[in-house]
Write a structure and sequence with these properties.
Elements lengths: L3 E9 L5 H11 L3 E13 L2 E7 L2 H14 L4 E4 L5 H13 L5 E3 L17 H8 L5 E2 L3 H8 L7 H13 L5 E3 L8 E8 L2 E8 L9 H14 L4 H17 L21
Parallel strand pairs: 1-2, 1-4, 4-5, 5-6
Antiparallel strand pairs: 2-3, 7-8, 8-9
């Protein structure tokens, strides 16, 4: 059986993040990728200059078309900028009984541009986070979800993960890429386990799309039948290698993308 994963996210016209990064990741990891586009962005390595939201009804139509035909094994969710869009996606997941869901609560692009309206955060926490198998916020996103300061160390990251689970998340992977130090450390907290995921920190500005890539890599692992911890370990290794190889690419004048196909190119 061919493993299939679906990304429900925004399109990055620059090709480094969003739907484009997700589909590249699925392909690199041996998974067939389908997509549900929630928004179009006018975007490049230097920033986001425009966002065009897809109507919620058409997002629902895309979900129905994909899930009615394809044997989807995992779902990755990225940029959802409006409350009505979040509601439509949550309803679609319920309608098609999707449980292996990786939710990346995308709020701000690598360039610093806001991608999630502030009034949508409450809706995200109420209707979508409890439906996800795991959420994958970075340090600023975890802080925003909790209305708290950004975690300064691993103890504070773990404490914030605990709080997110108390608020309804089933499992939490907090990404430490925004921190300092020789290691880039992510922590994965689930009801019966705690996993520390560490890799050497790479000095590069080519980090565009890292969050999208990690969450879609986890979804790829789940689609192939891995459990959450194994999928997260595989995803961390893949993203770390893609960041390390990013210097082999010359893309744009800003924050370049990671090298999704570093094994083949």
């Amino acid at each position: 059986m061919t493993p299939i994963a679906v990304t429900i996210a925004g399109s990055d016209s620059g090709g480094g993040a969003g739907i484009q990064a997700d589909l590249k990741t699925f392909s690199a990891l041996g998974v067939y990728g389908a997509s549900v586009i929630t928004a179009l962005t006018a975007q490049n390595t230097k920033g986001v200059t425009g966002i065009h939201d897809v109507p919620p009804g058409f997002i629902a139509a895309q979900m129905d078309a994909v899930f009615s035909d394809l044997d989807v094994r995992a779902v990755k969710i990225g940029m959802l900028s409006q409350p009505a869009v979040i509601e439509a996606v949550a309803a679609g997941l319920e309608r098609w009984r999707q449980t292996r869901v990786v939710l990346d609560p995308v709020m701000v692009a690598t360039s610093g541009d806001r991608l999630l309206n502030p009034d949508a955060i409450a809706v995200l926490k109420r209707v979508l986070i409890p439906r996800a198998l795991v959420i994958t916020p970075n340090l600023p996103e975890a802080a925003a979800l909790l209305d708290a300061p950004i975690a300064r160390d691993e103890d504070e990251m773990r404490a914030q993960a605990v709080r997110l689970m108390e608020q309804g998340a089933r499992a939490v992977l907090i990404k430490g890429g925004h921190a300092q130090g020789n290691e880039s450390v992510d922590i994965l907290l689930a009801p019966a386990s705690f996993t520390r995921l560490a890799s050497a920190r790479v000095a590069t500005r080519n980090t565009h799309g890292t969050g999208c890539t990690l969450s879609s890599a986890i979804a790829a692992g789940l689609a192939k039948g891995l459990d959450l911890i194994a999928a997260a370990r595989e995803a961390k290794a893949y993203v770390s290698a893609a960041i390390a190889a990013s210097q082999r690419l010359t893309i744009g004048a800003g924050n370049g993308p990671v090298h999704h196909f570093h094994v083949w190119w």
